[in-house]
Structures are given as C-alpha cells and as structure tokens.
Amino acid sequence: MFAAFHLPDLPITAALQEQPEWRKRPCAILREAAQRDDGKIPLLAINSAARQTGISAGWPLGRALVRCPDLKLISRHPKNETALLAELVALADSLTPDVEITAPDIVLLDLSGRKTLRLEALESLPDSGEEVCHSLAETPDLAHFAVLEPQMRARWISVEEIGLLPLSLLRNLECGDRFLPLLELLGIRTLGDFRRLPRQDLVGRFGPRAGHWHDVVSGKTCRLLKLHRPPESLAQTMDFDDAIHSSEALVFVFNRLLHVLCSRLAARHLAVSVLEIRLHLEEGGLRREIRLPEPLSDPAALLKPLQTLAESLTLPSPVTGIGLDATTAFPLARQSDWTGRRLPRPELWADTLARLEAMLGSGRVGIPALLPSHRPDAFEMQASSGGVPVSSDVPVSSIPLRRFRPPVKIAVASEAIPNKYPQPLALLTGPHCGPVLGLLGPFPTSGDHWDPGGAWHRLEWDIQIDRAPLLRLVLLPGDHWQLDGIYG
Question: Any bridge partners for residue 277, and if so which?
Fold first, then answer.
C-alpha cells in the first residue's frame, strides 16, 4: 500500500503566509518568463477565493482579469515554499522512513510494512496548519494520480476508480508533455479510455514508453521509490570554559573530535576529503580548510595536518571554542600497481601540504594547470591531490627554454624602421651584453583583446650573443625590453 501527501496550491499558500489578510481575497501568482510559451502570461497558482470566481490555474492573465477584475497578483516566496515542503517531509517521516519527494508539493510513502495506520484525522500540517490532502492506492503512481483530483482524496482508490480520472494526469509521467497531445487526437479523454486500448498497438505506434504508461495505469507495475535521505551533518563544536592559549591543548581537542568523526564515517563507509576548521577567538574568529590528497578515515593520519596547522598559527587572542566539519568521499579501494603514479603514504603528503600552507599562506599551494592561452606562464592553481599530473603536450622545439623568473629587465640598442618592428642591435645591460650576431624574429603574440585590463601584446626574438648561449629577447609595450630565458 502506498500513500501520497499533497499540499494544494503550494506557491500561493506560501506567498500568503506573508500577507494573511489577503487569504479571503482572490489572489494569483504568474508563471515565470521561461514557462510562457506563446507570449501570454498564464497563472501558475490561485487560491480558493479566486477559484470561486470561475477562473483556474493556467488561464491567461487577460482572460482571468475579465472574469475577476479584483484579482490580486502576488510574488512567489521560495523560502516559505521550501519550509512547507520540509514540514510535509517531516510529517511523512513520522509515519514511515520510506519517503520520496515526487514534486515540490507531493511526497509518496511506502506503507507496506505498517500494520495499522490512521490517516483519517490528517487534515493539516502540525506546525503551520496548512491543508494536507492524501490518497491511498496499490502503487505509488496511482496514489500520485489520485491525490491530484479532489474527488479521490482521503480514501483508498482502486484501479477501476483510477480509470475515471482525466488523461491529462499522464503529464506527470516522464515524456508526458510530448505524447499527451497525440493521445488526445485519438479522442481519449480518461485514463480508462487509455487503459482499454491494446497495449501492443500502443507500443507499435508510440513506442515502449506508451506501453509502460499502460502498465502504470493498469496497476501492473509497482516501481521502487527514490527514497529521500536528508544529509546528516558531521559538524562538531566545543566551547571552553577557560580559553586555550597553547597549540598542544588544541591538538588534544582535535584528537578527541577526530575519533568521534571517524567512528561516524566508518558506520557510513565514507572517508574525509576536506577538513574544515573554525576557531572562535575572544576577538573574532578564524577559518581554515585542509584538502587531503586522498580520502582518509584514520584518526592518526588526519591528526598530523591538524597538528601542523595548530603549531603554525599565530593567534591574536586565546581560543574560546572550536568547530570541526568534513566533506566526505568514498574511500579509495584499489590494487597496488608498480607502474602507476600514486602516493604510497598520502597522510605524509597531507602533512607536507599543511606545512607549505603554513609558510606561504592559505590558498597558495596547489598544482599549476595551464590555461588555454598563448600568453607565457598563463596558469591557474588547482587543489593539490595525490596524483602526479602528467602533461600530454609535446614540446615544439627540441631545445628547451629555461625561463627567468622573474624576467631580467635590460636596456637594448635598437634600430627604428618606419612601418616595421624595431630591430635589436646590441644588449647594453644585464647578465649578457654585446652586439647581436644573429636573430630570428620578431614573433608578435597578443591576446585577451576583449578585456581592457587583461589585454597583452609582446614581440619575441631568438638572438645570438658572442660567448653566450641562445637567448629569448622580448619587447613589451612602452619600450620595455627583457630577457625571458636561455635555450639549452
């Protein structure tokens, strides 16, 4: 046995919670611009007072205003809608743990394991008092169909009674909007008419999807619910009666919290990928994240980067409380490979990363990843992981260029040629001075011209100086010369 709980007119009900004095006035909410097909403005939801005037949801605004000139248009309130749905789910969870959120205003319940259950007194949500409708049926889809029709609510609905419902309910199934107009062209108006059609002929004309619909309407298929499992927080906090002044005391508290955290993860067969630490100080607070190279679940391995972090912190005031949270991931289960590149002991790598971040600062440690740009040294920092990045780029030149970081600023004697690029004649300053004996170039490169603050342009030469290796010479806008590197 399955049950469906439904909050009728959820958008308008949630919006009217902010304006309770308008409940007895006809009110409506318009659909969003992305849901308007033919340029008209249809109504998304209306309240009972508006429904008594003869209008209904889906009517164009102009037609509704002709029928009900006093119609009040209000805006949606997503926060209240989310709260009402959460309250509906909590009500369903109090009856059974097997709950599916089918729509923003409908939840399905599997009541197969319940021997006794009284739903007759279910009329409203316990906290907000909003109206709740329910229906019972043999399958979850039939219960879903039944709860959408007022005459089918608050009772058990048989498969035969489902046939009296309108065919438009098929819109709630997958791909229903696409095939429903074709079925209406056949003169079908109810689910019973659809059920009386030969299943084999439906499959031959509309495909296997129509055959699945025929089984659903006939009660021949009972799917599994997509169970809703609210995320369980792993966050832990601890406040101190006496403020902590030493890193040893912090490490002791972290060790205690980690054992509780790892025991919870072991029960769920998960591991930690990111540790989030919050320190509450007498004056302000501090937040840090430790990204682990591989998911870990061992308290001793997780304590090492926390210990390094605690020893490297210079706090302006004592610690009055701490918080510890974790981002989980599945633990890595793989066979050792002699040829694969992986860290034999990832906990040591995590300790090394923590020490580097302590010296350089949070967010300044990672793996450089090249950006899709021709600008030299264009890269971004990515979070460190246990894998070793392997580049698939093939060098263009057989002679590598060893770049100077930062480039060496120099003075160059050059010849200005009208309507052409300047020609370098000699290097006057820098580690390599002398006349230019040979050169290739210039090679002009530029990019990001659409960004006024990030546009760049440069001229490059490969030059030969007496008693010096091959050099990369660059001219930047403003007659700024520099050496980018040495070949070889």
Answer: 288, 324
